[in-house]
Structures are given as structure tokens and as C-alpha cells.
Design brief:
Layout: H1 2-17, H2 19-48, E1 59-66, E2 70-72, H3 76-83, E3 89-103, E4 109-116, H4 120-123, E5 130-131, E6 146-149, H5 151-158, E7 168-171, E8 174-181, E9 194-197, E10 213-218, H6 224-239, E11 245-252, H7 253-259, H8 262-293, H9 295-303, H10 308-344, H11 359-385, H12 389-395, H13 402-437, E12 448-453, H14 463-477, E13 483-489, E14 500-502, E15 504-505, E16 517-525, H15 527-531, E17 535-538, E18 552-556, H16 557-563, E19 573-575, E20 584-590, E21 605-609, H17 617-620, E22 622-628, H18 636-646, E23 653-657, H19 658-665, H20 667-701, H21 703-711, H22 716-745, H23 761-787, H24 791-797
Parallel strand pairs: 4-9, 6-8, 16-21, 18-20
Antiparallel strand pairs: 1-2, 1-10, 1-11, 3-4, 3-7, 3-10, 5-8, 6-9, 7-8, 12-22, 12-23, 13-16, 13-22, 14-16, 15-19, 17-20, 18-21, 19-20
Length: 798
């Protein structure tokens, strides 16, 4: 123990003596360890750690499975059906988000809401932070209105006051009594402010309106395979209301949450591992150079009786101190940057999982710090332990051994190869982003303003009254200066939402695998004109299409292509089956437009008029879409004033231009590009330092040889070529190895790319040339320094 303390003290003195080297080494390590720790915290929370919910292993997600549409959410009647299947499930719960107008506290404000089915919190083993959760009798629409507050809303609006229980909130003109506060670790929904009971029925949420993510908890002792088998026996009864359903999908809930994040997180973990290896290689190179300079010191200590193992332990202690110091600084960097990282990847990470630097992550950081300290410390230890004592004393530490040179060169080759892998990944992601930005959206985003409006279900309890309100808004907007066209839509394109359901086609003779299922949109006003969605056949909606006229529908080209191949769909009849069942005549076909995101192919979509099913307005809400002849944001106040002249208590939320919506939709693809861009930038910088360091050391160690060459008449160009050639050889080998490694590693990016193959040749050629040029630039300074060697000075010193 005493000798260990002595080693630590001596190591600290030596590192303090070489303060510049120590600072550089610690910072380089901190960058690698900090980035690795931050990414590992995401991987641990999303992929490794079980959900912090009671019986998490028994939680499954229930979804309808359609042959031609894949897995979809459930409708409210379907949720009720599965909630009654007690032979398989212990409990079945659901929730869905929305918005409400908060009034009575000054300016009307739209708050985010989340509606929970009865027993939601108890089923997950969650308890309110204050008060109680909802009771079963509070779920029906006829029950007294009660609400719970989110923990953040309680803190910000009520200053964490316990007296909030029993207070009143006016939401959508109804007075709610606060009965509880959600626990701080409640992460369902899009960060709701207020939570309400489910409060829907089959009128407001009819069959065919598939919008509910339903979570079920298997009964104790029931395995997933057994549950799937049991469902097959009751599926025929379930399918009688929707014969298009092929099967029920039961997915472990944690697998469902992490499924979309897994490929990205594993790729990012591989990326930071490469950065960490490059950092370790760099430090190993620095330590090798430092060890070479200390060879005479080591030789003298050995000659005075110090054992080789004792010296090896001393060197390992010094490198371990560097690793621990770099790890400590790296943890601080990870802590400071984790929030930025999570916000950057917010669209890619499950909202239900909290991500933080906890004890597990700190243990990981400590282990990796110690491991890296040992790994990069092994190279100088092996160098110090070998070699001939007599030769070292005679050389005085001025000459480098061939093995040491080869090891440093190998480390630089490794740095270049890893840098090329990261650079290739960043290049592929950049090419993918360019393709995605330039993909045909099916609509125009320029000069378009959007805003979300949720009409009060209390003030507009009658469907026709709400429809009249919507029509008033449309009329008022048409007179706002600068407004060219305005319309309404249920789901704003590229905003991330989607609702689908079955569609019946009159006279449909196809087999079950061709049964229609489509995205369902509701529009009003001049939506198609405002978005510049082209009409391909037939006509658009007109003023003569009213609540009392024959029902009509517009379909997109994807719907026509799939369900009316080789024929004209205009004039055919389909049943959308929301609200009032009945046939609707297809009056037009419009171009395909991206609904969910830019990378997803256009799906069959139907467009119905709010005017013809006004009862659906109460449940769906809408977004305004306004095309202007000027800067869209300059029209916000005029539009807001017009709406408030109709209803002063109507809050307006999510005011954005469609260009902003487009930019936000690209965030999931932009985030990995930025991260790999940062990784490759760090890697390039470290690789350049490594090349520079090796060649600088080569020039210093071979100054005598260079001086002799120049004294014998060697031109400066020959010396320049000698050094540059040595660097170019290392870069060439590194690029060659890197291309092979990148070819293999880039396949992991396949799920993150759009319109680009993982083995895209132009990208590989471009990044190889870029890396080679940057590497040669790093060689320039040592090479020029070699040409300035004064033969007389070198020979005189000898």
C-alpha cells in the first residue's frame, strides 16, 4: 500500500512537472470519455434498463394488424372490448393527448391535456405525488369534471402548494376540480399540463376511428406466446365489426418504445467508441514519445537497482491518473451536454423514459476511465520493459527503437482509419439529408402560416353551431390583407400525427388482403389551394357541398392507384365510416402529399368535408392553413384579431410557418448528421495531431541524419519529400484500412438513410480525398521544419 501511495505521489509530481502535456492529455481523454458517457446514458435508459413500472415485463401494446396496412392503433369500441377480456389481461388502459382552453386567469391560454382511462396509474404501479388518481365512476362523460395536474404545471403555476387540491380550473368553459398531482416521473403523452378522465363515448369516437394506443398487462403466469394463442380463439368475435383486421399484434411495451431508437443509439455508441479509441491512440502516442525522451532516466533507475516491473507499475500509475482525471472532466462534460443531446434527439427517443446521469452511468464512466488509462498506458510500459540497458545508457535517449517507431505509426494508421469510418458515416447522412430535403412533398411550404385551434366543446356543444363558428373563421380570414387562401385540416402534414381506419368500396370484389384501409383527413375551405396540392382528376369541394347535400369525398393518387388500378375512380362510391355511416361519391383525385414524414411513402388517403360530418369536429379539432402574399408571420396579429372578434376566449396555439414545420420534421434525420459531424470533426482533429506528432518526433530523432544528408548536398526538396513521403505512406495505409472498415460499418446506417446506399461510392471517394488532403496538411509543418535543419549546428552538437 505504501509503495502504491508513493507511486501516486511520484506520478502526480511528474505530471505537474510536464503541465502542458498533462492538460492536453486530460482534455483529449475528457472529450472521448464524456461523449461515450453521454451516449451510454441514452443506451442504458432506453435499451438496457427495465421500465420503472410495476410488472413492466408483463406490459404489452395492443394493435390491429391489417394485411395491407400493417399495425395500427385501436378504436374506442375496440378498447372497450379488450378491457373485458380478463382471461388474458389483468388490466387494459389507454390515453390520448389533446388541448383545452384555460380561461379565468387572464388571457385565454391553450394547455396540453392528456386523457387517461380508469385505473391507468394503479395499473402501472404509479401513485400521485399529491391527492388521488381518478376513480372508475369519474370516467363517463356524465360524471362531475375532475382533473389532475402534471408535476411541472403544479410547480410553475401553483408553486408546489399543497392547497391546490380542491381548487378550480376552467377548461373549455367547464369548471374542473383538482383532485391530484401526477408523480414527477410520469412521462406519458407530450408533456401534458393537465390530465383528465377519458370522457369519450361511441358517438364522439365511433368504430373505425383508430387513434388509441392501448396498453395491456398480462395476467400473472401468462406468457406472451400463450396470450397470442388465447387471442386467436376470440379473434373471430372481435373481427365482426371490422372484417379487414388480419390479426392482433401484441408487442412487449419496452420493445415498442425502444424499437425506433435502437438502430440510431447503437450506431451512435459505435461512433463514440471510435472517438474514444482515437483519443486513446493519441494519448498512447504522446506517452510513447515522452517515454522515449525518458529512456535515459529509466535506464539509470534500472542500473541503480529498480526492477522493470516496478518501473512498469509506475508508468501505469501515471497513465491511470491521466485516465481518472480525464474521466472526471468527461463526466462533467457529459452532465453539461446531456440535456442538449436529449433535446437534439427528442424526436428519436421515447418520451416515456427518463434519461439522466445516475449511479449506473457513473460506474460505467469510472470503469471506462480506468480501462482507458490502462490501455493507453500499456504501450510505454512495454517499451520501457524491453530493450538493452547498455544501449540505452550509450544513446542517452536520443534514438528511437524500431519497435517503438512501428507502434506509433500503427497507432496513427488506426486513428486515420477510424476517422475515415466516422467521416464516411457523416458523409452518407449528409447525402441522405440532401435527398430528403429535395424529395417531392406534394405541396408547397413557402408563404404558408399554420396555427392550431381547439373550439370549446361547451360553447359549441351543437355540431352545427361549431360548424358555423368554423365557417365564420374562414369568412373572416378571407378579408385579412395579404391572405390569398385559407383552409382547415384535421392533421397538419409533417406534424407527426396520423389516424386511419377501414374504408368500404361499393362493389369491391377483391380478396381480404386487398381490403381498403387509409389515412383519414377532414378539411374545410380552400385547403388544397392554400397548400398548392394539385387536382389530377374531377373537382375540388365547392360551396354547394354542405351538411344537407349528398356526401362527397376526395382521394389521393395513392388511394386511386391501389384500389382503382386501371380505372377512373371519379364517380365511384366509398364509405369512410366515421360519424354517420353511408356512401360518399368520389368527386376528385389530388396529388400525393407527405403526411407523417418525408421519408415515408405516400399512403392511401381520403379527404372528407367537416361540413358533411360536423359531429366529428367536436372530437378532432383542426389546424388553420393560410397562404399569404407576404411574410406569413406578419399576418399573425391580424388573423388572431379576427378570430378573437368572433370568440374572445379562443386560444391560438402552435403558430408556425410550414417552413418551420418542415424543419421540425427533419429533426430526427438532422440529429444523427450533426452528431456524426461532430464525431468526425473531433476524429479529424485528433488524427491530424497524431500525424503531426509522429512526424515532428521523426524530424527531431533524425535531425542528425537529415543534417548529414544536407551537408553532403541533399537538396531541400529531397528532405521535404522524405518527410512528406513518410506521412503520405501512413495516411495511405490508414485510408485503405478505413475504407474496408467503413464499408462494413456503414451497413449499420441503412435504417437511417434515405435514397442513399450504405456503400455509396461517391461518398467514400470524397471523404477519402478530404482525409488525405487534411492529413497531408498536417504533414506540412514537420516537413518544412526538416528543410530548415542547419547541418553545421547539428554536427557541432554531435
Amino acid at each position: 500500500m505504501d509503495s502504491l501511495v508513493q507511486d501516486i505521489r511520484f506520478g502526480l509530481r511528474m505530471l505537474r512537472k510536464n503541465l502542458g502535456f498533462t492538460v492536453v492529455a486530460v482534455i483529449v481523454l475528457a472529450v472521448g470519455i464524456g461523449a461515450t458517457t453521454a451516449i451510454f446514458s441514452l443506451v442504458d435508459a432506453v435499451l438496457l434498463r427495465p421500465l420503472p413500472l410495476a410488472g413492466a415485463a408483463r406490459l404489452v401494446l395492443l394493435q390491429n394488424n391489417y394485411r395491407n396496412f400493417g399495425n395500427t392503433p385501436l378504436s374506442y369500441p375496440q378498447f372497450l372490448y379488450w378491457r373485458g377480456q380478463h382471461q388474458v389481461f389483468e388490466s387494459v388502459i389507454t390515453c390520448f393527448g389533446g388541448a383545452a382552453a384555460l380561461t379565468g386567469t387572464g388571457e385565454p391560454e391553450q394547455v396540453r391535456t392528456l386523457r387517461l382511462s380508469a385505473g391507468f396509474l394503479p395499473a402501472l404501479g404509479l401513485s400521485p405525488a399529491l391527492g388521488r388518481s381518478f376513480r372508475d365512476e369519474e370516467e363517463p362523460k356524465s360524471a362531475e369534471p375532475v382533473a389532475m395536474l402534471s408535476y411541472g404545471f403544479w410547480q410553475s403555476r401553483f408553486h408546489s402548494s399543497p392547497s391546490v387540491l380542491g381548487q378550480k380550473l376552467t377548461l373549455d368553459d367547464r369548471v374542473y376540480t383538482v383532485v391530484g398531482v401526477l408523480p414527477e416521473d410520469f412521462h406519458f403523452g407530450r408533456n401534458p399540463d393537465v390530465v383528465l378522465p377519458l370522457r369519450v363515448d361511441t358517438n364522439s369516437a365511433p368504430a373505425g376511428l383508430n387513434f388509441l394506443d392501448v396498453i395491456a398487462k398480462l395476467r400473472p403466469g401468462v406468457e406472451l406466446s400463450a396470450a397470442r394463442s388465447a387471442i386467436q380463439t376470440i379473434l373471430p368475435v372481435y373481427k365482426k365489426d371490422d372484417a379487414d383486421i388480419n390479426n392482433m399484434a401484441l408487442t412487449p411495451y419496452q420493445e415498442f418504445l425502444s424499437g425506433n431508437s435502437r438502430p440510431l443509439l447503437l450506431v451512435l455508441l459505435g461512433g463514440v467508441a471510435a472517438v474514444l479509441l482515437i483519443a486513446c491512440s493519441n494519448i498512447a502516442n504522446l506517452l510513447l514519445a515522452r517515454a522515449a525522451a525518458r529512456e535515459k532516466e529509466m535506464a539509470i533507475r534500472i542500473s541503480l537497482g529498480a526492477g522493470r516491473m516496478r518501473l512498469a507499475r509506475q508508468l501505469l500509475t501515471e497513465s491511470a491518473i491521466l485516465g481518472i482525471a480525464g474521466g472526471a472532466l468527461g463526466v462533467l462534460m457529459a452532465w453539461a451536454g446531456l440535456g442538449v443531446l436529449v433535446s437534439l434527439l427528442a424526436r428519436r427517443l421515447p418520451r416515456e423514459i427518463a434519461i439522466q446521469l445516475d449511479a449506473r452511468v457513473l460506474v460505467f464512466a469510472a470503469m471506462i476511465s480506468l480501462a482507458t488509462g490502462i490501455v493507453f498506458g500499456l504501450a510505454p510500459v512495454l517499451q520501457a520493459a524491453g530493450g538493452n540497458l547498455h544501449d540505452r545508457l550509450k544513446q542517452g535517449g536520443r534514438q528511437d527503437t524500431g519497435g517503438s517507431q512501428r507502434l506509433r505509426q500503427a497507432l496513427v494508421v488506426g486513428e486515420v482509419a477510424f476517422s475515415l469510418v466516422l467521416l464516411a458515416c457523416a458523409g452518407l447522412l449528409m447525402r441522405s439529408m440532401v435527398r430528403l430535403i429535395n424529395v417531392e412533398k406534394g405541396f408547397s411550404t413557402d408563404h404558408v402560416l399554420t396555427m392550431a385551434i381547439e373550439p370549446s366543446p361547451s360553447r359549441y356543444s351543437e355540431p352545427r353551431k361549431e360548424l358555423a363558428y368554423v365557417q365564420q373563421i374562414q369568412e373572416r380570414l378571407s378579408h385579412v390583407p395579404g391572405v390569398r387562401s385559407a383552409g382547415l385540416i384535421y392533421l397538419l402534414p409533417l406534424a407527426g400525427g396520423q389516424t386511419n381506419g377501414g374504408v368500404k368500396i361499393e362493389g369491391h370484389q377483391g380478396d381480404a388482403s386487398a381490403q381498403p384501409n387509409a389515412f383519414k383527413q377532414y378539411v374545410a375551405g380552400e385547403f388544397f389551394s392554400a397548400m398548392k396540392i394539385p387536382l389530377l382528376k374531377g373537382r375540388l369541394f365547392q360551396s354547394t357541398d354542405t351538411t344537407d347535400s349528398a356526401r362527397v369525398v376526395i382521394i389521393n393518387q395513392a388511394f386511386a392507384r391501389r384500389f382503382f388500378p386501371g380505372e377512373d375512380p371519379v364517380g365511384k362510391r366509398i364509405d369512410v365510416s366515421w360519424g354517420k355511416p353511408g356512401w360518399s361519391e368520389i368527386i376528385g383525385v389530388v396529388g400525393d402529399s407527405k403526411l407523417e414524414n418525408l421519408s415515408a411513402p405516400a399512403s392511401p388517403t381520403t379527404y372528407m368535408l367537416y361540413a358533411q360530418v360536423p359531429e366529428i369536429l367536436k372530437f378532432l379539432g383542426f389546424s388553420l392553413v393560410v397562404r399569404t402574399s407576404q411574410d406569413p408571420l406578419s399576418s399573425v396579429e391580424a388573423i388572431r384579431n379576427q378570430i378573437h372578434q368572433i370568440d374572445a376566449n379562443q386560444p391560438i396555439a402552435e403558430v408556425r410557418t410550414m417552413d418551420q414545420v418542415l424543419a421540425e420534421s427533419l429533426a430526427p434525420q438532422r440529429a444523427p448528421l450533426w452528431l456524426f459531424g461532430a464525431f468526425s470533426g473531433i476524429a479529424l482533429f485528433l488524427a491530424a495531431i497524431g500525424i503531426y506528432g509522429v512526424l515532428s518526433y521523426f524530424v527531431v530523432q533524425h535531425a542528425q541524419e537529415i543534417g548529414v544528408r544536407m551537408a553532403l548536398g541533399a537538396p531541400r526538396g529531397k528532405v521535404l519529400g522524405l518527410v512528406l513521403g513518410r506521412g503520405a505512406r501512413l495516411i495511405g495505409i490508414g485510408v485503405g484500412v478505413g475504407i474496408i472498415a467503413a464499408f462494413l460499418a456503414s451497413r449499420a446506417l441503412a435504417s437511417l438513410l434515405f435514397g442513399v446506399k450504405p456503400t455509396d461510392a461517391p461518398t467514400f471517394v470524397a471523404v477519402s480525398l478530404l482525409l488525405a488532403l487534411l492529413g497531408l496538411a498536417a504533414c506540412a509543418a514537420p516537413a518544412l521544419r526538416a528543410t530548415r535543419v542547419d547541418p553545421l549546428v547539428v554536427l557541432r552538437n554531435e
